[in-house]
Amino acid sequence: MSRRIYIYDTTLRDGMQGSEIAYTLEDKILIAKKLDEIGIDYIEGGFPLSNEKEAEFFRRIKKADIKHAKIVAFGSTRKPKSSAKTDPNIQALLQAETPAAIVVGKTWKEHVKYVLQTSYEENLEMIYDSIKTLKEEGREVFFDPEHFFDGYKDDPEYAVRVLETASQAGADVLVLCDTNGGTLPFEVTRIMNELPKDRLKPLGGHFHNDSGTAVANSLAAIEAGAVQIQGTINGWGERTGNANLCVVIPNICLKMPYDAYVCKNLKHLTSLSRFVAEKANIIPDKRQPYVGEAAFSHKAGQHVDVLNKAAHLMEHIDGSLVGNERKILLSELAGKSTIVKKLSKYGSFDKTSPEVKELLSKLKEAENLGYEYEAAEASFDLMMRKTLGKYMKLLDLGNYHLESFKTGEVPAKTVGRLFIKVDGREVMGAAVGVGPVETLDKALRDALSPFHPFLENIKLTDYKVRVLNPEKATEAKVRVFVTSSDGNHSWNTVGVSRNIVEASWQALIDSIEYYYNNFVVEQGR
Ligand SMILES: [Zn+2]
After folding, report:
1. Which pTM value belongs to this model?
2. Phi/psi of residue 69, nearest 5 degrees
3. CA-CA 20 to 30 A from 69: which of 28, 63, 78, 141?
4. Distance from the CA of 206 to the center of ligand 1, in angstroms?
């Protein structure tokens, strides 16, 4: 049996140190669920001591239906000259009530001297006491020796003592950290081979990408015996980022003689990468290995002929293994099987069913216009319903009228009116708001709520706008994503237009119609 590698995701902690990256609490929960679904072994949820939002995450995730992954709380060792039993940070880790905790401690003497301003012996005490206390409370405990590789280069003897101390305190894995990201793969190999492994607990690796080698370092660490690798989805993190799990994982599963639990769901990796990108509101890097849009794209010509005959001569792996698709061939087959799977909710279909063909062509057409359904499953659900004749229309729009005005230095306001036909009657809604989208949403609710009180349970929990062709400046097309929730479920919809209000309207109507079709008509609520 091949050696098992444990995948540890820190998208929701280290990943949030990246510039321009912020996830709402709702997004963090959704991302954690996706990471669990695909089979990530450990999900670092955050730093429970840092703020209320982080602490709330741990309360919420406890109630979420997490099947495989273990949630991990992150914190540092106790303060100098104190006791872990009363240290606020160690206490916060325990109060997070996660099955596992990770403790970061100093390995580099310079840091002990200048940052902690304490003695080398006291630093070892802090590590021992912190880990021991968490172990006594029944946690699985990982130790993050911060700046391990720099510390080792400076004083190998002390760095090893740090690891021995953590091992004696009962740490389950010692996750060697390249915190500054300056280490190269052959140094990882050399240093890990020099360690007295018989006196240490199993090793892991946590690499930053400042030298462009975070993935290579992770693979080198595995070769040198690491059992756990930490990284983030899409490699996003502080400065130049962390080891990119979307690259590390397929390398382990497809190219190394090791196994990871996530390998059985490898074909969902591309979708996970894009889901996290949508949540971060960052355009995914086309050129990302394995999961990037261009990873298996080919220009026309002789090349494509060879591809048809013997794809392995032109591609390092079959892109469908990671859920990606070959671009030039439009990947009819991959597209069809995804649709068959999605349609299985409504009955049994196969790749030759006319509904599958129709849906595929609608999908391609919409994608050409800029729609994206990776993170807008509710809009795609409506497209399926329309194709199958299982769609109930909620309303007909007569017209809407919005007027934004600004006077002098007073903040702008918008007034709006909307006429719709619902249950055979013409009704009007009116509202005043600050922005046009908010005003339109209010006017729609004003008109529709008396007929459909379910609307009062639906809240918009997130709203994201992306410019699709920024080179067109103010004439650019925008894509709007809306996340809605009724308190139990949440769902996502999409709209595209050169007019931001129109794009928002599409996403709003999809959101309400999705709920109406799936929860009101079918479940009679
Ligand atoms: Zn880090």
Report:
1. 0.71
2. -70, 155
3. 78
4. 7
